[in-house]
Amino acid sequence: MLILGLDTSCDDTSAAVLEDGRIVLSNIIQSQVKLHQPHGGVVPELASREHIRNIMHVAQEALKTAQVKTEEIAAVAVTIGPGLIGSLLVGLYYAKGLAYGLGIPLVAVNHLEGHILSVFLEEDHPPFPFIILTVAGGHTSIYYVKDFGHYEQMGQTLDDAAGEAFDKVAKILGLGYPGGPVIERAAKKGDRERIKFPRAYLAKDSLDFSFSGLKTAVALYVKEWEKGGKDVTLEDISASFQEAVVDVLADKLILAARKKGVRHVCMAGGVASNSRLRERLLEVTGANGLKAYWPRPAYCTDNGAMIALAGYHRFMRGEVADLSIDVKSRFPIGQNA
Ligand code: KG4
Ligand code: ZN
């Protein structure tokens, strides 16, 4: 059974063809990074217009690469939220047109469910139940996953997402956009113990996050640092900031696993491709007798394959959307489409 998965929730136009809920026949991602780079972040109006320009050929490329004809697609799965309204609308209306024109079902997918299930795109995936940290530019949450369709949110960020903190700190340091990869690169040459930036653990045993205080601490530090006289490099600041984020993410993941008595711990989303975070997760899971999982980078950032996979499981449960369905900028994981 072939599912076409589409995601236009933020600044990537993506389409994928998935066979039998697990074999990725194609996964095409058209990034808009260059378009938004001069603005230092995603400009929603520009993003939706770019999706309009790209969606058709990205979807056609996905079918061509998979060597699949449109008529062979069993259903079209599309992200309806959370995300940028204008961006989401482009994907949803393209999907509606396809579903209507081909006479096939439309399946509405929660973007966060896509990230959670992205671990199943890899051969070495966790068994149920597992804990997963979804960590990106728009979200940072921990879920307990009992089965397909059964997700319990255990914690989330109260302010900035971790990826957003990377992006804002990169801007403060003049390193460009997106912040994650440039900070990671700079951090490799820095001393992560050099500056002790604050770690916000919040209430005892809390699985919520807060990164805005850390961002402010870095901004204040940089202001002082720019006056000169400190024997500290930009690379040291990058490494020390990254370490503060990694400490909190890793500690809370282990705490979540302990709370649920779960042995399998995963992460997904753009920040999950950070090599220091991966290294740390391997360390702490190993030390605690747990096993760590994460998908390859192309499945960590926004992609159509994870939406096709989530859509496949919804389709199998008979969860087909009405063609009058709308997008949702906010879309908690437990809410029905
Ligand atoms: O999953 P994604 O492509 O889009 C969202 O759903 O947000 O994630 C993008 C975010 C950006 O904030 C970016 O700075 C961050 O993920 N990111 C990273 C790395 N690569 C991307 N953060 C830390 N280290 C990285 N290597
Ligand atoms: Zn995402």
How do the helices and strands line up, and which of them pair or pack?
Blueprint: E1 2-7, E2 12-19, E3 23-31, H1 33-36, H2 44-65, E4 75-81, H3 85-102, E5 106-110, H4 111-117, E6 130-135, E7 140-147, E8 150-156, H5 162-172, H6 179-187, H7 212-226, H8 234-260, E9 264-268, H9 275-287, E10 291-293, H10 297-300, H11 304-316
Parallel strand pairs: 1-4, 4-5, 6-9, 9-10
Antiparallel strand pairs: 1-2, 2-3, 6-7, 7-8
Describe the structure in your own words.
- The chain is α/β, with parallel strands linked by helices and 337 residues long.
- 42% of the residues lie in helices and 19% in strands.
- It folds into two domains: 133 residues, ATPase, nucleotide binding domain (Nucleotidyltransferase, domain 5, 2-Layer Sandwich); 172 residues, ATPase, nucleotide binding domain (Nucleotidyltransferase, domain 5).
- The strands form two sheets. A five-stranded mixed beta sheet has the order 3-2-1-4-5, with helices on both faces. Strands 8-7-6-9-10 form a five-stranded mixed beta sheet, sandwiched between helices.
- Strand 1 and strand 2 form a beta hairpin.
- Helix 4 packs across helix 11, helix 5 runs antiparallel to helix 8 and helix 6 crosses helix 8.
- The protein starts with a strand and ends in a 21-residue tail after the last helix.
- The relative contact order is 0.19.
- Bound molecules: 5'-O-[(R)-(carboxyoxy)(hydroxy)phosphoryl]adenosine and zinc ion.
- 5'-O-[(R)-(carboxyoxy)(hydroxy)phosphoryl]adenosine binds next to helix 5 and helix 6.
